[in-house]
């Protein structure tokens, strides 16, 4: 098979790839200089839509509606945008071998691609219960959600198993968003997770108590503190029930599993330095191999604000790291220098009528403020994290765009806090003193 050469190649066609392409185009590209090689069959899109609007019973989001860069209020890059900008979008093509020494990539079909500069944007894959050998985990109608194909399979099952029973395994982002959207689709929904409360990596028990209460008020049953240990299926191989460690059995027509992800770094093992499960980069997203960059979920990068090295699996970082890498590549070609990446962590989620944002670092003591009664008509509350007398993290449910901006400013500025009780009383108005 013929070999194709590009000045720049991006492996992966997800969020980071799309934002990188836009940044390249901003700087000016010659036709044929840039290729995006993606396993998926569609042009880069805003992945968070898959667990939200894509599954809505009415007015569901569909492509081309949520191609990048609409998620951050930018221009929607339709498939033709890439050809109009001289960018080759090589879809339905999985790279199965990457040889960084010879700068050669090989696809599953045997095509080879060479490059001068490579951007690794392969993202993450889901952790599958079969990886743990959970009995029955290969039954039909047990779903995972990462790519649009996964979402399409779930949409088909929602249609065929109308008004049935769903068990959601996992109490993280996917678990919470999927439970809500399946309830909106009129399913009988039970969430199961082993932790004492949902989203334990970010939520305090107080924050979680609000969401668990709100979900319960909306008819979602929650079984926490127990593990799923197996599945039963019928003669067709369709899942019928979920077995819990405490001996109980939950009936299920559909199971959705959201137990975490794993960065896709396998292709580059032993070729690049790794750290904290990702590919180690500098503040410009260059890896230990010159001319090879890693962005988005796969990158472990210097988090300047906390003098730490971290990996972040969130869309905002995928977008910003991609832009930073391209800016750095273009600057180095012009003999210029840009500032190091200086990222303020930002996570968000939306479900039912709820919407929260978090900025900063969730370390230290916490104070809550506002109305966190799950039965309120319009709950609005927040939490601050304080360490060594400084406010480092801020969470807000139900905030307006301006209020969300305010908490992001607080997390960036890290103001001194002396009196936690006073801070709890002041809540959002604390920001007006800064
Ligand atoms: C359902 C869902 C909902 C989410 N919701 C939120 C949210 O609300 N807020 C938030 O902050 N974050 C959310 N995230 C996380 C966010 O989407 C990711 O952090 C972001 O997409 C990472 O971007 P990326 O470009 O690194 O990887 P991805 O967007 O995952 O893109 C990776 C791409 O690489 C391709 N690929 C992988 N290996 C190969 C290969 N060998 N050859 C060719 N192509 C390959 C994949 O097919 C994919 O197209 C969500 C994720 C999911 C799955």
From TrEMBL:
<feature type="domain" description="Monodehydroascorbate reductase 3-like C-terminal">
    <location>
        <begin position="344"/>
        <end position="431"/>
    </location>
</feature>
<comment type="similarity">
    <text>Belongs to the FAD-dependent oxidoreductase family.</text>
</comment>
<keyword id="KW-0676">Redox-active center</keyword>
<dbReference type="InterPro" id="IPR016156">
    <property type="entry name" value="FAD/NAD-linked_Rdtase_dimer_sf"/>
</dbReference>
<dbReference type="InterPro" id="IPR036188">
    <property type="entry name" value="FAD/NAD-bd_sf"/>
</dbReference>
<dbReference type="Pfam" id="PF07992">
    <property type="entry name" value="Pyr_redox_2"/>
</dbReference>
<dbReference type="InterPro" id="IPR023753">
    <property type="entry name" value="FAD/NAD-binding_dom"/>
</dbReference>
<keyword id="KW-0520">NAD</keyword>
<feature type="domain" description="FAD/NAD(P)-binding">
    <location>
        <begin position="6"/>
        <end position="321"/>
    </location>
</feature>
<protein>
    <recommendedName>
        <fullName>monodehydroascorbate reductase (NADH)</fullName>
        <ecNumber>1.6.5.4</ecNumber>
    </recommendedName>
</protein>
<dbReference type="GO" id="GO:0005737">
    <property type="term" value="C:cytoplasm"/>
</dbReference>
<keyword id="KW-0560">Oxidoreductase</keyword>
<dbReference type="Pfam" id="PF21791">
    <property type="entry name" value="MDHAR3-like_C"/>
</dbReference>
<keyword id="KW-0521">NADP</keyword>
<keyword id="KW-0285">Flavoprotein</keyword>
<dbReference type="InterPro" id="IPR050446">
    <property type="entry name" value="FAD-oxidoreductase/Apoptosis"/>
</dbReference>
<dbReference type="InterPro" id="IPR048618">
    <property type="entry name" value="MDHAR3-like_C"/>
</dbReference>
<keyword id="KW-0274">FAD</keyword>
<dbReference type="GO" id="GO:0016656">
    <property type="term" value="F:monodehydroascorbate reductase (NADH) activity"/>
</dbReference>
